[in-house]
Amino acid sequence: MRSTWKQLWPPLVAVIFLLTGWQLAVSLFHVEAWILPSPTDIIREFNANATGIWVHTLATLRLTLIGFPIGTAVGLIIALLLHLLPWTRRAFYPLLILSQNVPSIALAPLLVIWFGFGLLPKIILITLVCFFPVAVATMSGLAQSDGIMLNYMKMAGAGKWQIFTKLELPSSLPSLFSGVKISATYAVMGAVVAEWIGADKGIGYYMLLQKSAYHTDRMFVAIVIIVLLSLVLFAIIALLEKWLVRWKPRRNS
Question: pTM of the entire structure?
Answer without folding.
Answer: 0.84
